[in-house]
Amino acid sequence: MGAYEVLEERGFIEQVTDEGGLRKLLERERITCYIGFDPTARSFHVGSLVPIMALVHMQREGHRPIALVGGGTGLIGDPSGKKEMRKIMTKEEVEANAEALKAQLAHFLDFEGERALLLNNADWLIKLNYIEFLRDIGRHFSVNRMLAAETYRMRLSTGLNFVEFNYMLLQAYDFLYLYQNYGCVLQMGGRDQWGNICAGIDLIRRVEGGDAYGLVFPLITTASGGKMGKTEKGTVWLDPELTSPYEYYQYWINTDDRDVERFLALFTLLPMEEVRRYGKLKGEELREAKEVLAYEVTRLTHGEEAARKAQEASRAIFRGEGGDLEAMPTSYLERSRLEEGILAYELFVLSGLASSRSEARRLISQGGGYLNGRRVESFEQKVTVDDLQGGSIILRAGKKRYHRLVVK
Q1: Which residues of the chain have a pLDDT value below 50?
Q2: Are 405 and 331 within 8 A, CB to CB?
Q3: 3-state DSSP helix/strand/coil percent for the chain, to nearest 5?
């Protein structure tokens, strides 16, 4: 089975510019492919895992992936899929984010001996001479065709400025530059990048007379129709300082039953026969499949040790098994405060399980607040040193949100 078949079987392919040609190319030789990543934040989020895992599979099948951080295009902002203009970032912000994203990509791809490449398009875009760029590249673009692209068409009613209008040219130029300098013949990306990818293919044909290909991924949503990587607490990040490995693990173990098989195929490296076996499990047995999903995705993102600790903490809480609770979100409390006694609702605010005192009171009044596994009967219940278990207190909000308070 070749790279195309792997991506197809695991659910990565929505549309391809030349399916027959790309299949034959991938069977015939090892190629260089690329995906661009927008440096609008200092961390990837769960929604970025689809393109990252696509590069992982391409490398595993013997091809060379390029992860292109858009340090140059990030100074403009991609209008694709956006109803309004993105906030313009400073050069310093873009560079700082680009470096952080490079470090995260190194968890997934092997960059030894140029088996994969990490590039930043600022290295060539910032050096461009505007007049030369218009003469050599801009002349190949039809304004009528650009306005017909979905990216621009959906923005015409709300307003599209000239800075954003240039984005397609710059991304197309990226593809041409990578084709000329690295032999890159395949660009992959989200479905909203279809127009930009096709523009790059057309530019390569016009300038070099060469063949290039494009492949886009489906938009991944949960079975309930929600956006990937969104929780009550906000975005699920790959940076452990923004989303702890334990919280990351919990996000995956709480996957909707209907999504388990699909997410095992997309976000882990398990063989597909194993994925299908887990997909057949029902009821309580499906918990095993969710544990495998959570462990495997956490291991890929944060490493074996972090995944093990997150799993142990999760089992210790949900199954009552002995295990390491250090991976659980933790904060510290002075012993003297407990000796005086603290009202239960104040602890929920201190832990971050409630954003305000009124929210904490409401949570407890509705029966959703727990302390060491027991429901808190009153928000005015006093918590003292007598409630300590092994030097800590475990709080729970609802069914799935936990926090450990360790007494100093």
Answers
A1: 81-85, 321-322
A2: yes
A3: 50, 15, 35
Residues 6 or more apart whose CB falls under 8 angstroms from that of 371 comprise 344, 347, 383, 387, 393, 394, 395, 396
* CATH code matching the domain that covers 330-407, chosen among 3.10.290.10, 3.30.700.30, 3.50.50.60, 3.40.50.300: 3.10.290.10
* Rounded Cα–Cα distance for residues 71 and 123 (Å): 8
CATH class of residue range 239-318: mainly alpha
- Residue 336 is predicted with a pLDDT of 76
E strands, 192-323, in order = 213-217, 230-231, 234-235
- In DSSP notation, 59-112 reads HHTT-EEEEEE-TTGGGT---TT-SSPPPPPPHHHHHHHHHHHHHHHTTTS--G
Reference 57, options 270, 206, 234, 368; nearest CA is 270
Domain extent listing, the chain? 3-217, 239-318, 330-407
Instruction: Quote the CA–CA distance of 62 and 295 in Å, as a whole number.
Output: 26
The pair of three-digit structure tokens given for residue 257, joined into one six-digit string: 């039953």
Q: Which amino acid is at 317?
A: I
Per the listing, tokens 């096709």 go with: 198
The reported pLDDT for the residue numbered 362 is 85
- Strand extents, DSSP E, 38-183: 64-69, 117-120
Question: Tokens 């079975």, residue?
Answer: 223
Cα separation, 47 vs 65, whole angstroms: 19
Give the pairing of strands 342-343 and 382-383: antiparallel
Are 290 and 400 a contacting pair, CB within 8 Å? no
Q: Which of 304, 298, 179, 283 is nearest to 246 (CA)?
A: 298
Look at domain 3-217 and name its CATH class: alpha beta
pLDDT of residue 85: 46
Q: Which two tokens stand for residue 323?
A: 């295990």
pTM of the full structure: 0.78
Is-contact 262 11, C-beta < 8 A?
yes
pLDDT at position 81, please?
47
